Please model this.
Amino acid sequence: MRVVVSPFYRLSTLVVSNVYLLDGGRGDRWLVDTGHWSERWQLLRELRRAGVTPGELTGVLLTHRHSDHAGNAAMLQRDWGAKVYCHRDDAAVLDGTAPRSVMGARGSLLERALCAVENAVPARLRIDRALDHGDAVAGLEVHHVAGHTEGSVLYRHASTGCLLTGDTLLTARPPLTVFREVTRAHDAFSIDTAQAWAALDAFHAEGWRYDHLLAGHGRPLVGDARARVLRALDRRR
Model:
């Protein structure tokens, strides 16, 4: 586990997607996303090495419902009593109230195969608290940016300038995220790519400030992140 910008830590041995610990001390410890179920052992090991038992977690905040981010949420809720939070539109899909969008209609063979896995083994759980745009939780502002999923959100930590973006804004190129590159929600894995991109553009147009970017895939950008992101997105346009 490595500090990004205190009090945010990145669980550095997880490969599939990023998980962050917001550690405000005992009684104020939050996970942002939970990783894929295939990396459950790594998740628990990293928490243990950091001196944090899952039972100490104040809650789990999901950026969105995909299984590489929500895959261990049900386990933490069931086995350790962790409270799980996400936007209400994804909460309805996670608990089966709303239909699940089938992925895999576009993209490369690898992308379609990854979508098939998501379709076959999705994350399922009942959310403890559904979030709405404009809510605040754990010192974070909730910004709804639908498009990658119905309930994708950005979490902004105003006091440190950290922005946690899930898959709406990435710092590595999908699908394998080996190559570093600032990029918006990936088309093959998003239910409405145009909507996701427009939501991200609207967030920036509203003037929200951030200094550090903690994405769902790729290494964090520490320092001058907003300007670096806008330059990268302008180049891609």
In short: The CA atoms of residues 27 and 56 lie 7 Å apart. The helical segments are 40-49, 67-70, 73-80, 88-94, 109-120, 193-205, 225-236.
